[in-house]
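Exercise (ungraded).
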Amino acid sequence: MAAKKKNTEPIKHSLIPEHKKLSEKEKKELLEKHGISVYELPNILASDPALRGMDVKPGDIIRIKRKSPTAGVTYAYRGVVNG
Amino acid sequence: MEEEKYVYKFIDSIKFGVLSPKLIKKMASAKVVTPELYDKEGYPVDGGLMDTRLGVIDPGLKCRTCGSKLKECPGHFGYIELARPVIHVKFIPVIMTILQSSCRDCGRILIPKNKIEKYKQLFDQVENEYGASERRKKIKEVISGLKSVNKCPHCGAKQQKITIEKPTTILENEKRLSPIEIRSRLERVPDSDCEVFGLNTKVVRPEWMVLTVMPIPPVTTRPSITLESGERSEDDLTHKLGDIVRINQRLFENINAGAPEIIIEDLWDLLQYHITTYIDNSIAQLPPARHRSGQPLKTLTERLKSKEGRIRHNLAGKRTNFSARTVISPDPMIKLNEVGVPKVIAMNLTVPERITSWNEKYLRAFVERGPENYPGANYVVRPDGKRKKITDETKEQILEELQPGYIVERHLMDGDIAVFNRQPSLHRMSMMCHRVKVLPDKTFRLNPAVCHPYNADFDGDEMNLHIPQTEEARAEAEILMEVQTQLISPRYGLSVIGCVQDAISGNYLLTKEGTEMSYKEAVELLVGVGVEDISRLPKKEKVTGKEVFSALLPKDFNFTGKSREKSGPDAEVVIKNGKLKSGVMDKANLGEGQGLMLRNLHKKYGPAETIDILGKMFRLGIKYLLKHGFTVAISDTDLPPKAREKIEETMDAAYAEVNNLILQFNQGRLEAFPGRSVQETLELKILEVLNKARNRAGEIVEENANWSHTIVMTRSGSRGNIINLAQMAACVGQQAMRGKRIEKGYFERTLSCFEPRDLSAPSRGFIRNGFKDGLKPAEFFFMGMTGRDSLMDTALRTPKSGYLYRRLANAMQDLRVEYDYTVRDARGQIVQFRYGEDGIDVSKSENGRINVRKVLESIS
């Protein structure tokens, strides 16, 4: 039943951390802070299930909010690539 | 100066390419035309493989190219002109892809004209974004799609199917392509198309992969050996080259004489075979070329490849001078940062010292003693770099010419700097700098407290010692690597060095509530340990153990913590103003990698002080134990009759319960756990009951065992735990294999002495007896089973986990924390956005945490 309609909703699950696309301004700030280009970031595929329902294109940056055993909450950044 | 004659060059870049026939001829200094090596007089033949223009290996001869003698001439390349072209085996895959994806007529790549530029741009873009290796992958991807194109988009010619018959035959439509044909096709590929294949035509033209001339390596790379009988034995490469030259000459003669095509082709194939095996003699489809004795020749590829090859054996596997290796043994009376070096080794390892006007007398004395008398010297180095061995004959003369500027290589002495190491070096603490202490006998001695960072024990372990030879190296080792600087582990932020074994037992007994001794005894103890300042000991008739221990602590040291004791007066460790007020010193505070006491000492008083205190604590522990006496006996496992009765009762009760469970199971009354079958439920329940019973037995043992040294060891944490004692005194417990009770053996039973399908405790490996009472035969057998199983398990797991660790270490070796706290690899790719996600340098923390309150208190 549910499989009939193509699911465009992002997956909601306690084990999937929050993924957020950075705005152009935030993106610039991040890249300037570390003095890098998008290519120095770890990658995430545009087809990654966690990005489902999000309007992303290669070159965007995704911020992932994670729970960390050492720091409580940490943010990781991923550069979107084709695939 | 002497050095001025050398020209120093710095490598700016390295370019890899394929040698062109032109270049081969250009760099050659001789053309080889004859397979003969020497003439009748034993003199190298001109135009032969040992031609003196290719370098010299005989003493007395001069190189005709550079004019230098043996050992000075580096050797020079030669070349031979091949009668017919021959394919280079190592380039077969490249040749194949080019043939398959270029036109057989016009030589253009099988991509339409307008698309070529587009692909080139795509490759450039990929390289920019992901690097050169990704570009290579992309090229492969594009090229592999061209094999199926069967019409040339440039000239419209129909393409044929090209296959390979290993190792070196290339077929087109089942018909053989000769190397001449292959070469002419490769020649036709234009430079611009080569670029799409990923070839830089300035250094690689595809036709160069088919050889028309071949370089002959210098004689110096294939020296012949003169046997004792005076006979010469040539190198494998020379043999192989001789074959090549011989066949090549025959081929020339046959072609010139107009011999039939079949004969020429046979010789050509033979030439191909010889050149192929000259390059690589371990190709699967080709029979290896052999010596007359039958052993395969070692040709070019074999020289480089695999573990015994040039790369792994000679380049990666360098051996080092000024190092020593021997068995290690413990010596708690030397300092933690010392290493005991056997005198024989000390007389072999040397430290170079330069003579100046200030130390001339001091160094002269070493030379006078010579190599045979201990603090002597083995060599003297003159200012011009000549080394002279000191012997009884040369001594007089050396002493005469000795003057400032000379370097004396004197024997190793107390206090010299040495780097000590034990493999596997998984840690930075696996290589630490120690001070030398020359001792008699033949083993390296180390303080047992530093066993932990090296992961060493004394069951036959060997360790390596290296002696730095320059002031810079010594300073670096001392500042960066000395034992005290490695005290705090970067893994968990606690001391990796602490008390072990008897040192913990001793300190436990000493600092336990109620330990007392006379003032005199205490002083004797402390002096024996190396304490000079006795004023810290209160002047009383009787002093407590805690007061003795406190004499080691700094006057203003404050600390609160916990001991392993759960309750009682010794549970809370309180140190105030350098006095141990309460609490017992056990593993929780003295142990390696545990407790904050050592960590706090290090933070407040620094590495040198801490290592000193640590050494004294260690010695205090063992000295006290020596005085106190320490032994274990079988009677340690004695239990009062009442306790034994109690244990019997619990065992009987457990057995009854197990039987009851089995009965329920057999009657089908047992209810399964969710997600489990009834059998699994039964097993789980039985295991639970039996484990409970064993633990109960353990508790009874703990409550009732007489106070003994066995108990002291378990309480202090120096060795063993209460379960070990319970296994000896009361009950060994369930033997498990793969987390289950034992079920292997005969059909439906474990051993023939049990009934089939017997699920009871004893038939499935429960050992009711303790080691002291002795095991029943079946119990003993079960124990043997699990013992063997665990032995196998550890023997198999150690190399596996070692390899896993190695892979991790290699993958992460060049990660580093940048100034913005991000962790990046060598290319600048970000791995973590904050080191460890919290940015804490663990070696500067306390067990990975930062105690903010303490920081605040220290500021205000």
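Further reading is listed at the end of the chapter. For now, observe: Residues 235-318 of chain B form one domain. The interface with chain A takes residues 129-130, 820, 822, 824, 828-831, 833-834, 836-840, 848 of chain B (CB under 8 Å).
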